[in-house]
Amino acid sequence: MADYRRGRTVEERGIPAYDIWVIIRSALWGVVISLLCFIIFAVVINSSKVQESTIPPTVQTIKIISVAIAGLLASVATNSRGWLKGGIAGLIYILLALIITSIISSEPILFSAMLNDAFMAFVAGAIGGIIGVTLKSK
Prior knowledge:
Pfam families: DUF3792
Structural class: mainly alpha
Transmembrane segments: 20-45, 57-76, 88-106, 118-135
Keywords: Membrane, Transmembrane, Transmembrane helix
Radius of gyration: 17 Å
Protein name: TIGR04086 family membrane protein
Organism: Mahella australiensis (strain DSM 15567 / CIP 107919 / 50-1 BON)
């Protein structure tokens, strides 16, 4: 039977407080990696003749890779549940990206696009988390 007592610490409930900070820090690193990649991509677009049709898939690829790296970082720094911690890092990444996008852009964000990004981020972060736990165990 599950124990539903009050007053349990964060560690007793599942994710230790240290791991929460590691997950947040990993998501921040994912955002930094994305921003650097977007700057490099912007320079490439301005200096060469890149078709506009390549922009959306490239942006999506950068986001997926950045989230997977964030998930990997979150799971390597912790001991267990890499898929969950990576997925949470991905969701925090999307939340931070949403905040940054809403500050920079005046265009409204579609709810369906936000849900799609959240699902993609959880899956990519979970995959990165699984890879991180596997690499750490070797």
